[in-house]
């Protein structure tokens, strides 16, 4: 990630707890691990120079996803790392409800 100068990475199938992912010059990952079974997990990793706010209000039970408001080079956007298993219609419905809400709150840095 350092070599490629990646500002924001969205990962799926991380499998490991938060303390197992430690990359020099990057913040502690925003992570959601799969509950009830082994494997899975999603995370957002940002460079230490990227302003990042974890959007807890979009964390939903039944959806393996994490969301963050990030600012890179003065450009601000919302990003999400989402994993949905093949055929998981319930998770797709939850994702649709989260995305359908839109991002209406303005966060101050």
Keywords:
109 residues; mainly beta; three-stranded antiparallel beta sheet; 32% strand; globular
- Compute the CA-based radius of gyration: 14 Å
Main β-sheet, spatial strand arrangement? 1-3-2
Secondary-structure-based class equals mainly beta
**End-to-end CA span:** 25 Å
Low-confidence stretches: 104-109
Q: What is the general shape? A: globular
Query: What is the beta-strand fraction?
Result: 25-35%
Mean pLDDT: 86
Total helices: the number is 1
Helix share, percent: 10-25%
Query: What pattern of helices and strands is seen along the backbone?
Result: EEEEEEH
Biggest sheet details: 3 strands, antiparallel
Describe the structure.
This protein has one domain. The longest helix has 13 residues, at 89-101. With 109 residues, it is mainly beta. Helix content is 12%, strand content 32%. Strand 5 (64-72) and strand 6 (75-83) form a beta hairpin. It contains 1 helix and 6 strands, in the order E-E-E-E-E-E-H. The protein is globular. The chain starts with 7 loop residues before the first strand and ends in an 8-residue tail after the last helix. A 3-stranded antiparallel beta sheet has the order 1-3-2, with no helix packed on it.
What can be said about this structure in brief?
The protein has one helix and six strands.
Helices and strands in order, then pairings?
Layout: E1 8-12, E2 30-32, E3 42-46, E4 51-54, E5 64-72, E6 75-83, H1 89-101
Antiparallel strand pairs: 1-3, 2-3, 4-5, 5-6
